[in-house]
Fold this protein.
Amino acid sequence: MVMKHIFAKALSTQIELLSIDEIFQLIEYPKHEGQGDLSFPVFTLSKHLKKAPNQIAQSIAEQLHDPLIDHVEAVGGYVNAYFNQTYLGQLQIKRILQKGRHYGDSDMGHGQVITMDVSSPNIAKPFSMGHLRSTVIGNSIALIAEKLGYSPVKINHLGDWGTQFGKLIVAYKLWGNEADVKKDPIPELFKLYVKFHEEAEKNPELDEQGREAFLKLEQGDEVHVALWEWFRSVSLDAFNKIYDRLGVTFDSYHGEAFYNDKMDEIVELLASQHLLVEDNGAQIVKLEGMPPALIKKNNGSTLYITRDLATALYRKRTYNFDHSYYVVGNEQSLHFKQLIEVLKLLGFTWAKDMQHIPFGMILKDGKKMSTRKGKVILLNEVLDEAVRMAKQNILEKSTYVDDIDKVAEQIGIGAVIFNDLKNDRLNDIEFNIGEMLKAEGNTCLYLQYTNARIHALIDKSRIEQVDTVNTIDAAAWPMIKQLHLFEITLITAFEKHSPAEVARYLLQLARYFNQYYNSVRILDDESHLKDRIALLSAVSIVLEEGLRLLGIESPKSI
Ligand code: ARG
């Protein structure tokens, strides 16, 4: 942000019509080379002054002098500024070295609370690709929010309630056995669940039994509750193994079941405000421009949205959130629209602070990677495969790596996370482990290699600590400008709920670094060595911090 401030201040000495803040807002980062480092469009001024834009630009450019700005040019309706590269480079590098991994920290959030509904898999079912997306996107948004001074609260809204658990209990009693479930809980429970559906097609009687079993569970029947608790705990153990590998933690695991005894209040509220209407024995809320929200089925049981209504109320009361995010696949868009709308109808003004943050699907060869119909893809196995390939990769390339298994895990897991986050979240993404582990291109490994290369250079230089900079290579300028953009990138990423902004930023930084590396023989010139190591250290700080914000680790040597 420093460059913009400098330019805004310099411009403000020439412009009376606009405040320094207004000038600041107007300044642009030019898209193409040869348009300066920053550009100020004068069209707003020309409207007021009723003078031609190029004349205004010309006269500002002629008068503008600032020791930090090398020169300015008027091009059409723009004033383009070229900065004093040495001075700015020094400033930039020093700032990063001083702040270390706190470079980019801000208090723009003023501690505002953001509850974040993330991951939220369904117990007794495999952890799906959709839940993987929610987990990594949500985790990164939370990390970025925290860096900007917000207080995110990550909530894993487990899918641990609903008729399917009645069905599972029936299936377990009919065909399951304890030893098998203990050995390999999720695949075993899922098998039972699939079998139940196959059998129920031939024998609809089973569905009725499933409903009865769920009713018993709801009523607190001891045997049923004990089974459910067991399913829940073995599922959580399995999920936690995945979370550990992904490096993700949660502040709460209150899932749907937690709201079991908290739905009456919301149903009564709806009734008392005459929002609840009967429709074929069911209770619904009519909504404008979208299908009605089904609150209670005709047998009196509650639904997904009933639990989400109670959840929203509970979260507002418990955390008094300023914002409430739901990081959930875009196939649930209607659900969240309905949810927010019903809360608005109830007069809860905070419903406007709730936001669905949707994302697309993960595809394999253009098709959805599905966990339905018994076609189970176990995420842990997918992660194992990525790590195995990462290890093979390292073995082929490197001669010596300290702790190869640890590094392979960092690279393999990083590849899976980055492959997800580098894309705009609304896009469907292709899951191809070979592609995501390429050392060149838009991959995590490219970033991790670049960072390891920097560490190797720093080690080789034998320079221990640097905090000042004198000369700066001209070839370093694009990289320095990129370093400078880190803060604004984080803000954009936060505002758009888009970790992809950070991912792309890092790729560009690494590309600039590698261009520099190819054009300057970094270690050859003793007299410039300290300055170069300072620059390299700054780049590495930003690469590592940027990766951290995506939830990815950076091995120092690969
Ligand atoms: N368990 C749900 C699913 O897998 C996602 C829950 C999302 N969060 C929520 N509050 N509805 O589809």
Summary: The CA atoms of residues 378 and 468 lie 51 Å apart. The longest strand covers residues 69-75. Residues 222-246 form the longest helix (25 residues).
